[in-house]
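Checklist before submission:
- one chain only
- standard amino acids only
- sequence pasted in full

Submission:
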Amino acid sequence: MGALVLALNPSIDVEWRVDRVQWEEKNDICYERRWAGGKGVNVSRWLRYLRGNPRLLIPLGGLSGKELLGYLREERLPVKVIAILKRSTRVNVIVTTKEGRQLRFNPAGPELSGAEWNTILRETGRLLPRATCLVLSGSLPQGIGKSAYADLIHFAHQTGVKTILDCDGEALAAAVKARPFLVKPNEHELARWQGTPIRSRAALVRAALALSGKTGGWVLVSLGRRGGMLVNQKLKRKLFARAPRVEALNTVGAGDAMVAAVTRQIELRASPETWLRMGVAVGTAATQCAAGKLPPATMVESILRRVEVV
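Returned file contents:
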């Protein structure tokens, strides 16, 4: 088994294509597409694409949960399902206009019962000893405390498994104290964690190093079109990677692609420079595909040749 990926608040993602959004008027949908979504699902999809062997642990419920599981089986993603009783998996809606502008609507998702959460903890404990890494990605479902990711990171420490964390807000603040191996915020999430805006490159570096100081590990900051930054305060490392200039067709899931690429390189025991180069290359490739779709391998190889690490 490769990485164990927890997708605690998955979704069906639905894209509605419209000519334009008309407020307080009927909007005709030109095209609808549905697929298995949520950050953890995206990470698993990309890990499989990168020749990893992920195992996805996911709570699902209701008709939307059955639909999501069907998509996962079509993609042949290895999955362990925790059944949610009496509640349905959420459905996220993306409205895309002809000009490429998007509105995104994400419900909070179903509430997990204490018994369901205990089942997830028990299954995580069973699978962890065989995992190369533990990936915790996405928002937390209702019904569990903000310390849920911190608890799971403590589990991973007990089995000697490295944790890669991608979350925001209170869940991030609590999880940082458990000292994950690598944290991947974007610039907005990093600013929210430190409580003040980031207005310069120097401020960005200071904030990332401060976060690394709290975790004792690596901090990977996704910077969109500008690429990415990887720092480790303890090891006195600061690496920047410039993304090649491309016309983004879609930005949904680009950060998840970056997380998967870095996780895969950690599994392969590559250097931090390689983590960052591959992360930026795969994240950039994700912007060239429709959400939930994967590019040809030649695209990643072509982009990778144009990524500079400084």
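Reviewer check: The chain has two domains: 1-131, 181-310.
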